[in-house]
Design goal:
By secondary structure, this protein is an alpha+beta fold. The protein is 50% helix and 15% strand. It has three domains: 3-139, Orthogonal Bundle (Butyryl-Coa Dehydrogenase, subunit A, domain 1), CATH 1.10.540.10; 145-251, Butyryl-CoA Dehydrogenase, subunit A, domain 2; 254-399, Butyryl-CoA Dehydrogenase, subunit A, domain 3 (Up-down Bundle). The protein has helices at residues 32-59, 67-73, 90-103, 105-125, 128-139, 158-161, 253-288, 300-328, 334-358, 370-382, 387-399; strands at 3-5, 17-19, 145-148, 165-169, 172-182, 190-197, 203-209, 215-219, 232-242, 290-291, 294-295. Strand 10 (290-291) and strand 11 (294-295) form a beta hairpin. 48% of the residues are buried. It comes from Actinokineospora spheciospongiae.
Length: 405
């Protein structure tokens, strides 16, 4: 993928080369040390992830060999103070999500589930002792996390329809139920499981370790998006978890929602990376593909497609940057994250479709890469809140009236 000179320099900073898809040079909003982190990650992705992405996607297998390299980058704990050499802003973590997704949305989903949903649940809902017990090893990627909320019979209505139960017996909790679409669950060392307490009917969080009796995770087969992600069906059958492994500050679904509010923005950043990659690939193809004696990039209709794509990428990047700034100032609300996720993933869908169109029949070949981003976009469009649910969150905020049922 190409790079081009930034159009958004800051006086006093040394020059950085920004991505072709970053038309306004938003990346230069990062501090110099943050840009250095992004550059290290970009190089790792270019050399270690991009060359193997299609092969693992095609075989629906996870490239475990890259975990050591990710660990060496020391980025898993950067959003949590004291867990990485650099304590990063939301802007930095957003650009890293964009960067990883630009190489492979599946790897960004793995990374987001581990660092955002799993680590975020423990950081937000765990006691001081629990954070000290689990987060350092997770930040070093010595232990990988998963997040189990969605169920076979519940998606958008999970807040009120959670069927997995938890029953306290002395110093233990007995979990029963099923979970579906749980990323990383086939190999995770720690799975944050959300269940409804039979006694008070409130949703509580539990950290279930790999190998716990009564816990089983089966890989979901035949996906057509994010195939590299190891999603699983989980079955909990009289699965016993110690009280010390119950997240001590998770007392209701409101606490679960706090985690989702923080991670929903990360999905939007990943969507920007997905559409940016598709745009960059289409642009490169258009300048090289010759028809009727000239590159197709010289045709007006192709330029119209390309201009629409870069407009979608740029406006979406502006939205996620603004969201990150709200988060860094502690004033982000549910409706902010919901609006950004809804708008950005909708623009992503149009962008990857146009990229596929620019490549014509070659666009359906995995070897030309666009097909992978085209397919993966469908999963990003749906998870962490569908467009419709996010639109209703925004609608409630602007009208003062809920319209969910």
């Amino acid at each position: 993928m190409q790079s081009s000179a930034s159009t958004f320099p800051r006086s006093g900073d040394r020059h950085f080369e920004t991505l072709t898809g970053d038309f306004f040079g938003f990346e230069n909003l990062l501090a110099e040390d943050e840009r250095d982190i992004v550059m290290r990650v970009r190089e790792f992705l270019r050399t270690e992830v991009e060359p193997i992405a299609n092969d693992h996607w095609s075989r629906a297998e996870f490239p475990f060999q890259i975990i050591d390299g990710l660990r060496a980058l020391d980025i898993a704990g950067l959003r949590y103070e004291g867990l990485a050499a650099h304590y990063g802003t939301r802007l930095l973590s957003g650009f890293l999500a964009l960067e990883i997704s630009r190489a492979d949305p599946s790897i960004n989903t793995f990374y987001g589930v581990h660092t955002g949903l799993a680590m975020g649940s423990i950081n937000r809902c765990g006691s001081d002792e629990q954070r000290e017990r689990w987060l350092p090893a997770m930040a070093r990627m010595e232990k990988i996390g998963a997040f189990a909320l969605t169920e076979p019979h519940g998606g958008s209505d999970v807040a009120g329809g959670l069927e997995t139960t938890a029953r306290r017996e002395g110093d233990e909790w007995v979990l029963n139920g099923e979970k579906r679409w749980i990323g990383n669950a086939t190999f995770a060392d720690l799975v944050v499981v959300w269940a409804r307490d039979e006694a008070d009917h409130h949703v509580k969080g539990f950290v279930v370790a790999k190998g716990t009796p009564g816990f089983s995770a089966t890989k979901i087969e035949d996906k057509v998006a994010l195939r590299t992600v190891q999603n699983a069906d989980i079955v909990l059958t009289d699965c016993r978890v110690a009280e010390r492994d119950r997240l001590q500050r998770a007392e209701s679904f409101r606490d679960t929602g706090d985690v989702l509010r923080l991670t929903r923005g990360g999905v939007a950043w990943g969507a920007v990376g997905c559409m940016m990659a598709a745009y960059e690939l289409a642009l490169a193809y258009a300048t090289e593909r010759v028809q009727f004696g000239r590159p197709i990039a010289k045709f007006q209709l192709i330029q119209d497609h390309l201009a629409t794509m870069v407009g979608n990428v740029t406006s979406s990047l502006a939205l996620v940057v603004s969201l990150a700034q709200l988060q860094d100032h502690g004033v982000n609300k549910d409706e902010h994250s919901a609006l950004v996720k809804s708008v950005v993933t909708t623009r992503m869908r149009e962008t990857v479709a146009l990229a596929r169109e620019v490549l014509g029949g070659n666009g359906i070949l995995l070897t030309n890469n666009v097909a992978r981003f085209f397919a993966d976009a469908e999963a990003l469009y749906s998870y962490e809140g569908t467009r419709e649910i996010n639109q209703l969150i925004v609608g409630r905020a602007i009208t003062g009236m809920g319209a969910f049922v």
